[in-house]
């Protein structure tokens, strides 16, 4: 009877390690399929936001298409012409994509 108890105790100890291994595996899967791609996309958006110059066609967070008329580095804002003679001021962090690239991806 004691041999069965020893084997049962050993099986329970191994179960703890397999649970830890399973948790690490789940975290690794989440990292490679969810977190890492999102970080890469955020990095691309930041690089685009930092490379905006006058004349760049952009899409704002609100979905407005326009052309950058002026870049204000002190206040990190952009003057974007959304229609002929209509210029709005947008914070640089609210411009997410190039309108030219969006047209190509359709």
Structure overview:
With 106 residues, the chain is of the alpha+beta class. It folds into two domains: 1-51; 53-105, Roll (SH3 type barrels), CATH 2.30.30. It has helices spanning 2-50, 99-105, and strands at residues 57-60, 65-72, 77-83, 86-91, 95-98.
Quick summary of this structure?
The protein has 106 residues and is α+β, with helices and mostly antiparallel strands. It has two helices and five strands.
Using only C-alpha atoms, the radius of gyration works out to: 26 Å
**Beta fraction of the residues?**
25-35%
- Top CATH class of the largest domain: Mainly Beta
Number of domains: 2
CATH fold name of the largest domain = SH3 type barrels
- Helix share, percent: 40-55%
Number of alpha- plus pi-helical segments: 2
Coarse morphology: rod-shaped
Strand and helix layout:
Layout: H1 2-50, E1 57-60, E2 65-72, E3 77-83, E4 86-91, E5 95-98, H2 99-105
Antiparallel strand pairs: 1-2, 1-5, 2-3, 3-4
Which terms would index this structure?
single chain; 106 residues; alpha+beta; SH3 type barrels; 2 domains; five-stranded antiparallel β-sheet; 2 helices; 5 strands; 53% helix
